[in-house]
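Help! Submission page says 'invalid entity' but I think these are all valid:
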Amino acid sequence: MKDEDDFAAFVAARSPALSRTAYLLTGDAHHAEDLLQTALFKAAKAWHRIEGDPEPYVRRILYTQNISWWRRRRLQETSLGGHDETQSPPDTELRLTMIAALGRLTARQRTVLVLRYVEDLTEVEAAAQLGITAGSVKSISRQARARLRTLAPELAEFVGADPEGGPA
Amino acid sequence: MTGRLSDELKRAGDTAPVFTVAPDTYRRAQRARRRDLALAAASGVAAVALIAGVVTSVATREEAGPLPADGEGPIGVPSVIYDIPADADLGSASGDLAIGRSAVSQVTDDERTVVIDDRGGYHLLDLPGFRRPSSQVPSLSPDGRQLAWGWTQTASSAKGTPFGVRIADLDSGEVRTVSVEASVKPFVYDFTWSPDSRWLVWEGVEAGRIGPGSTTSEPVPSPGDDNILYAVDNSGVVSIATLKALRIWDGELVSNEPRDTGWYPSISTVADGVLVETIQRDRPDGITTRHRRLVDGAVAEDITTLDDRPFVADLGWVDPQRALLLTVPTPVGDTVGGLDVVDLSDPTETTSYRVAEVRGLGVTVAADLVAADRPGLQRPVPPWAVDEEASSSIGAGVLTAGGLSLFALLGLGGWWLTRRRRSRVG
């Protein structure tokens, strides 16, 4: 019973933070809910083997499962707007744009952005989480930010360099 | 700048709903686990039945050609650089690094280091201090005679953990250890060699320059930018390209040229003071690529503009006019790309030819083994790739057998119908 209690306590304490990550990772509230449920189910199966803090284990499942799903389904991903439609401008307009643009990135691009800029991992740490090289993290991050700028030019000042700034 | 991106993303995340997790998740998971255990036991029985198939598979491998470690072919780069799966049978990893001049270094799917020598032999290496997961790709020098990798004394990634770079002489097997004095996290994940293979710049959380034969590393500026690329020439002068500037450094900052924004750079040293830069800009419908020659940090010549060119990374130089590029359709998710030689001698027209198909991960290539008149060499297909092809053959065989069976059934049905009609007529 102890393991089950520990699992329940973990879910109660960490669900909000994990929901937030799943939401940013998937770009869709329904997929995020599925992703979180799947990750916790997998973690529960292996609960007896997890030593120490289970959160890194659960997060790693979130990251890799999301990319795995995307690879299989090649989802036509849509914006996250539904959960934010009641927000009011002007500050939330920017957030809406960011969310809509995020929703049109690939799962892998979004995952790298979340790891680097939300979870504040270094390139090397993000690479270790995803099982890819740090160079790939760098490339994907570059692509993701370029795509954000393309999708939402008004975000350029947040994202980095202006893609239209150079000569053609 | 990216701090603001971080803030904005975090704020976007704050709008996320909190999902309710099904209360029976744990119990369902435990039931599933018990079911998995039962299935695993049952599959043991089935495994016995597969032994005959495994024996057949081994026989197929022996017929496939020489084992990849028996490379005895002509000198050069293989025409196909295969992905190496985690379960590829390469024997035990060897700590003997005297394998001679090599053509390719790459990492397997589970991050073990494999070097393909210049005659096509595969060598699984046990590099001292190299730890997995490491997120680094050991780097082969342009002349194929040295291999560099990052080492750490312990598995800890905490600040203060002793770390550095090791460089193996692949002719003698001797390893040079370079310790890095740094108060940062012990990461090394990328390398840039000078064209003559004597100087090396490593990149991690910080960066450093290692001179010919040196066992010390000199700190190199590491501007706060996610897109830093380094190049070092035969005199040890380091070029540092970022999204905002191109800096030339030689113990101190020599120049700092602002650059056009929005272009992502990749740089290679051609000769002392001369760089060729590949710059790329993302567009919604593709990528715009330009090459240009820089002398002492300033743009001397725009070579050409190539639209719709795939993502490229400069790997080195075949000669002063021909760049060696790794070309992939997109930098995300694609593991199949090409090793291309691009002739930049004509400013108005760029020609290229493919040296090798790259199906593997984390590949570095000895550029000196690529020549204009020496494309990639055909080598025996390694057993793990043969298995893939064999699977396709088995699949084709099954399909053929199915087709033949269907054909036979139809024939039998036709014969039966004809006979029936004849008997009615009769």
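Support: the input was valid. A stray whitespace character was the problem, and the output above is from the cleaned input. The two ends of chain B are 93 Å apart (CA to CA).
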